[in-house]
What does this fold into?
Amino acid sequence: MGAQSAGPLVAGVDSSTQSTKTLVVDAETGVVVARGHAPHTVSGGERKESDPGQWWRALGEALRQCGDAARQVSALSVAGQQHGLVALDATGEPVRPAILWNDVRSAPQSELLIGELGGAKAWADRVGSVPGPSFTVAKWAWLRANEPDAAAATAAVRLPHDYLTQRLTGQGVTDRGDASGTGWWASATEAYDTGILDLVGLSPDALPRVAAPGEAAGTVHARDLPLPHGALVAAGTGDNMAAALGLGLRPGQPVLSLGTSGTVYAVSAHRPADPTGTVAGFADARGDWLPLACTLNCTLAVDRIAALLGRDREAVEPGGGAVLLPFLDGERTPNLPAASGLLHGLRHDTTAGQVLQAAYDGAVFALLRALDQVIDEEAAPDAPLLLIGGGAKGVAWRETVRRLSGRPVLVPQAQELVALGAAAQAAGLLLGEDPAAVARRWGTARGASYEARERDEAVLERLAGTLTAGEGLLRG
It folds into this structure.
């Protein structure tokens, strides 16, 4: 148990690709009184899969690390990695491991689905997004095509956060934010699209109810966790939507998140519909929208380049003309699922530190190219870029973002923004408040500010030229 609490306690859960984090927070002040962490295992190689049961076990372990504080919470919320396909049988048990967001085996199904509904624009107009390989609808189509017995045994389909919420409450409930990343929830109608479900052979009865913003999913029903029986459980949401809540974002404030994946997003009052597929037209957890672009290759890809070079991740050097597009896992933005890393422009005098800097440049470039499409016209062009995620702690990441964006940068002091956003959602439910306003009261976006630097146009031009010239190689 950490700091003492003045108000009721709430818990926020971040069930991510790599681990589960839990925070117990004072609902009035935002003071974190306890925290826990437990790792997950993800299969290697082409398959990106996890056993959903380990998420539940990790949740229990992370809550136990919170001690007595966990047993005193009045409400909690689960935020989870988006898009993952959790297929359950009639008893609620997984029929196979969950297929995660960064598994790109569903690329052929993605292409087929786009054509079958009338093209990318038809998807964007109807769903708000063009369903890339990461989207749940493509993963379900892959399962039907490649593992028909597993698909036939599936009685319920859940997203990762839905699976945990269901085990907590006994109720099949999701929220509009996470549902908007499935490909079968239509932003135009804010409901499941029965035409798309018919197209992929999935019954609406297999899907969870979509709770309205501010509505509870239920109460704690599970007996095997250190939580009070009957505590309120919020609907939860996707990790990006939770981070937006955790920052208390207002429309027009751009965010760049540096983690296993890289993301750029901003809250908007306008429903997005990008026919190029660069911007996913997600809903947020409050009733607005969260246009977002995501890259598959971010901190882990750059760390891998550093390891190959035998250098510390901060050991970058300026100069040189090398260009590195670190698309080690295939890429989502730009949509190049068969891509591998591409290195161009080596000379005799190129140093290892310059190659490492080129990897940072390539990862940040992919995100900044999408940023202009994410932010709508009403956002100020010089609005500070909020830099979050594990990479935001790194000097090399921060300085690369400053040099290539030309924007001021704000690095919030709060680190666990997804779990904080989930806690803010729980607090909003408990107190009857707007969860983003709760987060603003908590001061979660306070942090270090860095002035804008002149944008490095030469590097940006080299990167854009290499991406264009190398497209044939990158398409695999």
